Amino acid sequence: MTPIKNCIVNEDTTKNPIWLMRQAGRYLPEFREIRKENQDFIKLCLNSNLASEITLQPIKRFGFDGAVIFSDILMLPYGLGQKVEFKKDFGPKLGEIDLENIESLDEINFTKKVHKVYEAISKTSIDSIMNNKDMIGFVGAPWTILVYMINKSSPKKGLSDKFYKDKILISRLLVIIEKFLKLHIKNQVEAGAKVIQIFDSWAGLLEDKLSEYIYNPTFNIVEYVKKLGVPVICFPRGIKDYKNFCQIVKPDAVNIDYGVDPKKIVKEIKIPVQGGLDPQILLTNKEKLKQEVEKYLNIFKDHPYIFNLGHGILPETKIEMVEDLIKIVRNFK
Ligand code: CP3
Hints:
By secondary structure, this protein is α/β, with parallel strands linked by helices.
């Protein structure tokens, strides 16, 4: 499908919509306030009133053009019945996989388990502040979900050979993951999501077998989202060849990470581009921020470009720097 008017994903080169990955998160004092009282992260994601309130916090404060639902890519394994916990200063920790249990799960029971996420999307999208803004739903890409389900924590040191040992487990899981990612997307769109972003946070871990684990499974999800009539943004973080990825997977827009050269991207990629700025820049000073933000805006001035970062905003980020960032983007001519 072609990108649509009045949506952050469009063909317009005169405006740069802006939102930030992880905009509903720990750099916001009002988020930390709620988080303090709600130690269990999954429970917080499943509290539709609070999840909706958190989703709207950055919109109220900064007036971003898109609101990304406060949830997590790991709600998928959670919905499949795998245990998911978030440990302080460690990150996510997943439990054992019970393949038989997972394979016998039906769509009704999955939806029941995570329906509060959809309720939070519905609540958020009917808020008057969302009138000319996009509700952004999201999922993890099949590869990144597979990585978490099998590795059971963030593979910060890469994946060992052990990861690939059980080929049957991998192929059976990929079938399940694809089926339930589609359901999770459909449920979000029916609840009011106007854009879907697919996060492939660990795409950069793969040196080969990209067709098997990234291109083919992500293409299937992208095709499915297009059929639902909403634009789909892919973020294959750390992948070496974004051009090849876009040619094969055909998303409506692509988020680039901060490791890629935006000048090369603008020449190679025809679809709308999102993101790129290194989130560390927000930890520097206002001069450096202006210089780096305008670098991206200048490079993409004749290209449809959604302003965002090259990865999630860091918890240490100061509010004033985000305010400044928005001013720079809005005042750019
Ligand atoms: O504002 C938003 O972007 C919306 C919500 C959102 C969260 N996670 C909330 C969250 C989104 C889009 C995600 C995506 C996500 N989750 C990804 C893909 C993006 C990326 O970062 O690569 C991944 C890999 C996850 C898995 C995950 N969830 C990790 C690795 C962590 C721990 C990270 C850390 O910095 O400690 C989480 C926890 C998480 N998800 C938090 C938030 C706001 C922090 C929770 C907290 O401790 O308060």
